[in-house]
Predict the 3D structure of the following.
Amino acid sequence: MRIKNKTMGMRIIHTQITPNIRVSTAAIYYEQTYYVRPYWRFETWCFSKDDRQRSFQVIHGTDSNKFSWYDLRTSIKVHQYIAKNLKKKFAKA
């Protein structure tokens, strides 16, 4: 028997670094999974089409079935840290 994942997500913050690089952070609620209870997961993604920067994902705040304001603040700080460092790396000379 297969159980479908029901998800609900909301974008928290988004930063465009260059036309080819952006950083996005979202809170995603997974209602139904195979072996675990419903939970919130906060994710920060760096999407890149630039050869100098790889795309990557940071997952944080995965253990709560209630929305965590602490994890929200932490995810914003992680987003700002990544965006700040990428802006320095790709600043126009």
About this structure: The mean pLDDT is 84. The radius of gyration is 15 Å.
